[in-house]
Amino acid sequence: MAMVAMMVVVVVVAIAVIIAIVVIMIAVVIVIVAAAAATGNGA
């Protein structure tokens, strides 16, 4: 049972890390797009 619990924890952590990376990437893209739009409007 200990092995199964370890596997479950590892899988959950891996999924959480992947989700965090995806969210960060999306946030970065939004910031870049916003900056580009602001620069375009400013020019």
Automatic annotation (TrEMBL):
Domain of life (superkingdom): Bacteria
Transmembrane spans: 7-38
Keywords for the protein's UniProt record, in alphabetical order: Membrane, Transmembrane, Transmembrane helix
The keyword Transmembrane helix is assigned to this record: yes
Name of this chain's protein: Uncharacterized protein
The species this protein was found in: Dictyobacter kobayashii
Organism lineage: Bacteria, Bacillati, Chloroflexota, Ktedonobacteria, Ktedonobacterales
